[in-house]
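Forum > Structural Biology > Help requests

Title: Can anyone predict the 3D structure of Cytochrome c5?

Hi all, first post here. I have the sequence for Cytochrome c5 but no way to get a structure on my laptop. I'd be grateful if someone could post the structure tokens.
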Amino acid sequence: MKKHVVFIFLILLIGLISACSNDESANTIAGNDKSSRAITENDVFQKSCITCHSSGDINGGEIKLDSVKIHDDFKDKSSLYNFVSNNMPKSAPGSLSKEEYQAVVNYLWGQKK
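Reply #1:
Sure, ran it for you. Structure tokens for Cytochrome c5 below:
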């Protein structure tokens, strides 16, 4: 009887883990490799930007990113991408992947004006 209970518990646990690992955010960047972990805009912002910046509803560092200023300072997403990828994060400029930089730019550009 004990073995059956343990077996059922393991099956349920595996099912729960599988269900959780398939959850994807609406703000997901899918790479060409289907086996690669999807990168979410929020994940990248939390990992790489939050130390110095806050944006929208995400609170973090001392410098609050202002969406109006972003849209005024950068004429399009491409110019914002060039700035961010060449200058951020301040402690290690250029250290993120292209997908991570694109996620941050998509997040920032999508903030309400």
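Strands lie at 28-29, 39-40, 53-55, 63-65. Residues 21-37 have pLDDT under 50 and may be disordered.
Shout if anything looks off.
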